[in-house]
Amino acid sequence: MAGPVPPYALFVLTEAIDVDYLNEVLTRAYKGNYEAGWDLYVATDAYSDAPKKLENQYPEGTKAPMKYGESRSLVIWETLESCAGWLHNAPNEVALNHDYFTAVNQFSQADDTVLICRVVPDQDNSTLTVEYFPEKTDDATTQTAVSIGLKDKALVELEWALFNNTGNLTAFQTIRAPVWVASPEIRGTTTILWSCIITLIACIYTALHLNVPANTGKMSMFAEKLKWVFIGLIAPEVVLYLASSQFLDARRLSRELTLLWQKKKGAEALEMQTVTMGDFSEPEEDPCFDIKYGFFVAMGGLEVPIKDIQNYTSRLAMRGTLESGSLRLSVNGVLQLARLGYFIPIPSSSIDDKSKADTFQKFLIMTQVIWMATQCIVRKAYGLPVSLLEIHTMVHVVCAVVMFVFWIKKPKDVTDPMVVESSEFRNFIALMVQEQFHFRRSEEFIFYPRGKIGEVTFEQPAFVWVHQTDLARREHLTDDEHNVMSIEWVRPKGAQWTLKAGEVLPSGLGIVARGAIWQVETFQRRVLPSWFDENAYASTYDIPESVWITEWVSTEPVPPSADMNAQDIVRWKRVVDAIESIEGRLQHPELFHHDYQQIRYPDQHFHDAFTRSAGNFQYTGDSQVDPDQILAFIFSSPILLILLLVLPGVYGGIHFLVSNSRFPSDIEKLLWKIASFDIILTMPVFFAVTYIGSAISRMFFEYESLGESSWAMFYKFPGHLMLFGYILARSFLVVESFISLRAVPIGTYWTPSWLQMLPHI
């Protein structure tokens, strides 16, 4: 193996330096770490005492510090030249570096220095010249290592020319350097740090293919990308999970859209068999629903305006929110429209125009990745130590490469979605909006049969209440004489309208109460007798208790009402039209309620296709995030669940495997193992606790809200603690990877010169 030949000799040139000071020099200069390959040999006059080649252990006395009373005494040499001669004439079997040595002289103790020396023989090997310079003891480790590591002749000449002309600017500008100078075989701490930091950030930054941003400001987009870079640095498997799940979504959309399109074309081909050749026209080219199209949809590339059916509040709101007046179709939303016969084809060239992929940038990053991987492999092959930071970096690099493979077909840095406006499926867009964003009020509405558009000529009894679970239990709206009232067809006027029980819009929309009971309510209250003069007392609090009487009071339930704006009315009109386009016109009053809708569409499952959980729109509003629904979605997808369990396990497992490396302290090594185990076990335990807890909730708390029940709080609390510990473990691994560089084997800093010649940052 190229590099320094261990050990190298230390010569003492004066009797003024005692063994105690020599021990102090050795301890401070070499930090007390006497690693194999860098041990010091304190030379005596006998070659037989020098370490021999092919020996597994160095002879006694070759490791500092030395003590008084040892059988071997130090030889006091006269000059550096005599030291060089002794070293130069040593037999070949002596395992000493014959080109470099260090020495201490009469000035060393006063100046706290050692001499870094190089033996330079002439061409016929008859005369030796010694080049040297003093170096502070605390810095001797690095400088001596540099001197010993220089094996390339041109580099040696350049190094010593620079040392011998330190501060001589004229020499720096006039002395010619060799034609070719090899890279040094020594790297510094900053070299390791910057190469790892740049590789980490550059790989993650380049591999990230973010969704279409909601806020297209430059600073906002930059901050969003930095946020995901930080997540990639702390938890790369989280970003890898998102990349893999998005790839699965894009592939699913591509496959299902292609099948639906083929079915549609097949049906059209059967109809065209009855058309004469004269009427026949060339069929349109089939749209390309490839995985690129799937990614474009999954990243929020299709936007539909909803200003006419949703009261938007701000022109400055983030795009893709209700407040902005536009929403972005999800993979499920595009699939639902396709199942209804509405496809949204986009030319591949249009997607490419919006993508800002930089091939040259990717080439540079891949070059850096290859160099980093090659360096780690070569160091292992040479038997050199690899720092924890480099291992940690390689784990992240592998994650980034896999992430890039998943996203290789995904458009990059798309900042502006395509706006899709079509009157053909606007009714179904309204149905999706109603179910996903207004589901809490949806079940309070009822649909009444209507005549032709604009005609409402027949009378129907008005409903005021329907049981929340038993739909057969209903109450009609009655007058003061308890006669059943008929519905009243109304046409809203103005920007705001209050829809009352018994009133029906031209669309057939009415409102009913949905409580568990609907009956006369009776309660007690305290009143004063009619004969009592309450003005006789300054305050009612002063009236004696004996005066007050208790009476029972009965009240009728208050009929329901709903405040609506113009956009709400338009949206409900389209919702009714969408439902009737599926099943035909209503024949009797029907509730807009999930239980009924599931009965209404038992085969098509149209209600499930449009509910909030279907997620037909991508939404960035925090208020719409439901952890329970996210967990339910994960449990319903075996592939995604497996990825969530496997990826952290692999990440933590790799870090645990390197826990036998050298750590600055035993406690740091122990914490590294604990953190690795925590990452491996957190996700399986978390999902097990969540699954068992939610199952118990469904069994014993059927009518309680899962998010509010005490049991849910009980089993979710340890889950939150586990996730907090998971974050701490991830953070520790990152921090420890960096701070571990403060105490690494010296071989960490030696590197083959040819490896430095490979292109890298």
TrEMBL record:
Membrane-spanning residues: 191-208, 228-248, 388-408, 630-658, 670-693, 713-733
Keyword Repeat listed: no
This protein's record includes keyword Cell membrane: no
Keywords on record: Membrane, Transmembrane, Transmembrane helix
Name this protein carries in UniProt: Uncharacterized protein
Source organism per UniProt: Neonectria ditissima
